[in-house]
Specification:
This protein is an alpha+beta fold. The protein folds into 2 domains: 50 residues, Orthogonal Bundle (GTP Cyclohydrolase I, Chain A, domain 1), CATH 1.10.286.10; 138 residues, GTP cyclohydrolase I, C-terminal domain/NADPH-dependent 7-cyano-7-deazaguanine reductase, N-terminal domain (GTP Cyclohydrolase I, domain 2). It has 7 helices and 7 strands. A 5-stranded mixed sheet has the order 5-2-3-6-7. Helix 1 packs across helix 2 and helix 4 packs across helix 5.
Length: 199
């Protein structure tokens, strides 16, 4: 799987900020509100600014954060794990929050990257409209393509507001997804990975 399929595609001319704010006004009128009442006058502008923050991942390429590697680390032959990477994303089906934690490991071959960069990859890909399944695959794909490691493991455990605040309204439920490549296809290595993220 290549990260190319997850990169932003050209969707035509980008609307202006003013057009985006007008769209929010339309949604407010759709639910029966008056966008001109005191409490809502600045809401379209605030909402668009919030979108800039929520979806900042579209302006960044996660591969860029993995480009700087360390050449002075030799003889290390095991995996590197960063646990408990908290993130907030948004469901591509309902545009409501997904809040969770990612655990990311890779087994270096020739390229070793700063551990903060693994968390940065999660952050960039989370700040896009996505599904948890795709986000899990995307994190693994960009690490695999950029670092060419011996293997990658990604586990995400998240709560979806599209389940807890609408639809079936099952609060407290969580969804767990995995991706394993290379050395992590080995059952024994998978067990070590799982044991380490539970500690």
């Amino acid at each position: 799987m290549s990260i190319e399929q997850f990169k932003k595609k050209d969707s035509g001319p980008k609307p202006t900020r003013e057009e985006a704010e007008k769209a929010v006004e339309t949604l407010l009128r759709y639910i029966g509100e008056d966008p001109q009442r005191e409490g809502l006058r600045e809401t379209p502008a605030r909402y668009v600014r919030a979108f800039d923050e929520f979806f900042a991942g579209y302006t960044m390429d996660p591969a860029d954060d993995l480009a700087k590697t360390f050449e002075d680390i030799e003889g290390y032959d095991d995996f590197v794990l960063v646990r408990d990477i908290n993130f907030v994303s948004h469901c591509e089906h309902h545009i409501v929050p997904i809040q969770g934690v990612a655990h990311v490991a890779y087994w270096p071959d020739k390229k070793v990257v700063g551990i903060s960069k693994l968390a940065r990859v999660v952050d960039i890909l989370a700040k896009r409209l996505t599904s948890q399944e795709n986000m899990t695959k995307e994190i693994a794909a960009v690490i695999e393509d950029t670092l060419e490691p011996k293997g990658v493991a990604v586990m995400i455990d998240a709560n979806h507001e599209c389940m807890s605040t609408r639809g079936v309204q099952k609060s407290g439920s969580s969804t767990v997804t995995f991706t394993f490549t290379g050395e992590f296809k080995n059952t024994e290595v998978q067990h070590r990975f799982m044991d380490m993220i539970r500690k």
